[in-house]
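<context>
A single protein, sequence plus fold
<sample>
Here is the protein in question:
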Amino acid sequence: MTNINSFNRRDFMRLAGVAGAAAVLAPNFAFEAAKKRRHQIGATGILWNDMELALKDMAALGYVGFETFGGTIEGMEKKGTPLGPLLQKYQIPLISSFNSGHVLDPAKKQQSMDNLIRWSKLVKGLGGKIIVYCADGGRKKGYDYKEYKQNIVDSMNDYAKAITNEGLVCALHPHTGTPIETQEEIDWVMNAVDTKYMRFAPDIGQIQKGGGDPVKVVKDYLSLVEHMHLKDFAGQDKLNNGYVGYCALGEGQVNLTAILDLMEKKKKLGGMIMYEQDGPNRLRPGMKTPLEEATITKDYLVKLGYKFEPKTIAEAATPPAAAQ
């Protein structure tokens, strides 16, 4: 069984090779390549079903930014339990919000536009910086993006301009099961939209699951990357863990170190690198808890040189002893 708190073989050999060469050149330099990391790590709330528990766990572990759905923020406002006080309590800023807008059916465009503008205002009011935009409209059997090219480009350009006008960054997020899933679709749309307004927010696990090469995608569009969902994918048929094929960082197929090394070339992001793990609505026996999954991810990233900032909040959760 794989040790969940260690590198996979590929990552270990890569770092060992870098460190070995460095040690020959200078003392105490062996792991400098792994220690110097420019960016911070946040987390999305999708794995948790309880917003306050999500923020408690993130605070205890030291994730430094938060992302949730625009509809979730709005729903909390309507229920009289706004997100703002929780962000203040656990000292974690809202960085981004995940939102979708229809691109296939022109009749649904105005409603999507209204939603995106409304959610953007809420996000900005909470100090958020970026809208992670996902193309909506489904993906039926036999779907061919070429049949919808004009609708897709026109809709995305208009959505991105509207979000930019609200003072936020709009970044496209390819996702399995949506009109923009495959590498061919990513290549086409990123060369078709107006990138003055529509930037890029890849989910590297989703790209792997969709049959693409996330390293090549990130490299090709690095200048446009403003945000990232950091996720690993083990293969849906190979890992029945309840997380729809996604797995702890380092246990899957994604070349995480290559992608994170590419991200080091970015001096600044409009958003943040966000740890994300897709999960079920409820845990099955034997499944890791959200806190355990988030702890494994933190441990993996610390070994790669990323720094975390645990909050000393009395209510914050305590990470599992074995992972400390």
Notes: Residues 1-34, 238-242 have pLDDT under 50 and may be disordered. Residues 94 and 127 are 6 Å apart (CA to CA). Residues 9-25 form the longest helix (17 residues). The chain has two domains: 9-38, 40-307.
